[in-house]
Design goal:
Layout lengths: L5 H23 L13 H21 L22 H28 L8 H10 L6 H23 L19 H17 L9 H19 L7 H18 L7 H32 L8
Helix pairs in contact: 1-2, 1-8, 2-8, 3-5, 3-9, 5-6, 6-7, 7-8, 7-9, 8-9
């Protein structure tokens, strides 16, 4: 196996381990009555150690990816194209999950629109503790529309990476590729407004970090459309998003739409990362050179 695949492999395995530890923490690390964390919980400490170790591992693995010069920066879709249907399946599947997340937001919104939420601060905390979120109807509607639009743009970006013989896919206007970033920023702000009423940061920090790195991952992905992308930086943010999104799946205190969005976003970024790595390896084989970390 090419060493450049060490980064996505570390992200997937690390995400699986983080998910298991987060499940253990949720089962043993919180008081049943109040929902507050139990100090000194072993699963919580193990998860913290694992995340720190993974941060170092991902940073080291990202150095195995090619280091491009600014004047020779890879472009999207030119340097992400492939003839492999299997490679394209992964980002398309992620986009599909994101779209389902947007539809779930709209479904929840229209169910709540007639009366609205209007929860007090105490009621919101109770909902968080019992396993739910209290987005307003307008906020839910906005998130649903933005996520669906972002999924459509990402699908076109993935479709542009399909290569038939020597023909390159069509390139979207670079400005459009920033739309998924904007959608994730809005999602992050609205989620934080709801989560911030919870007095226990331990209960929701993984979801917020997952959204932060999903936003950064999509931002670094969009930079390739402006021919200003850096594979190492994109790979680092994308792999961190995979780990944190996987760990956040263990939290039952988020909507189905959030589960679908986080999972779909992580799979989408992972898919584009694999496309970039595979394309770079093919380029090495074509010209007989070896692209590796700078000495």
């Amino acid at each position: 196996m090419n060493r450049q695949y060490a980064l996505p492999l570390t992200a997937v395995l690390g995400g699986a381990a983080a998910l298991v530890l987060r499940l253990l923490q949720n089962n043993t690390g919180f008081e049943a009555d109040t929902g507050l964390p139990i100090p000194g919980n072993l699963a919580e400490l193990a998860l913290a150690v694992l995340l720190i170790a993974l941060a170092a591992g991902l940073l080291g693995s990202s150095c195995l990816l090619p280091r491009e010069e600014e004047e020779d920066s890879p472009a999207l879709p030119r340097d992400f194209t492939t003839t492999s249907t299997a490679l394209l399946t992964l980002p398309v599947a992620g986009v599909f999950l994101m779209a389902l997340g947007g539809l779930a937001d709209l479904a929840e919104c229209f169910r709540l629109l007639p009366e609205g939420l209007g929860f007090s601060r105490h009621e919101l905390y109770r909902i968080l503790r019992d396993g739910g979120l209290g987005f307003s109807s307008r906020g839910q509607l906005l998130m649903g529309v933005l996520v669906l639009a972002a999924a459509a743009i990402l699908f076109l970006m993935a479709a542009g990476c399909r290569r038939r013989e020597k023909e390159l896919g069509r390139m979207l206007p670079p400005t459009l590729t920033l739309f998924p970033v904007a959608a994730m920023v809005v999602r992050l702000v609205l989620v934080y407004r709801v989560d911030s009423v919870n007095p226990s940061l331990t209960m929701y920090y993984l979801e917020l970090l997952a959204l932060v790195f999903l936003t950064l991952g999509f931002y670094r992905l969009s930079s390739f459309s402006f021919q200003a992308g850096q594979t190492r930086r994109f790979g680092l943010y994308a792999s961190a998003a995979v780990v944190l999104s996987a760990a956040s799946l263990a939290d039952g205190s988020i909507y189905l739409s959030s589960l679908l969005l986080n999972t779909g976003g992580a799979i989408t970024l992972l898919g584009f990362l694999l496309l970039r790595i595979a394309n770079g390896i093919e380029a090495e084989e074509d010209d007989g050179t070896i692209i590796g970390p700078a000495e």
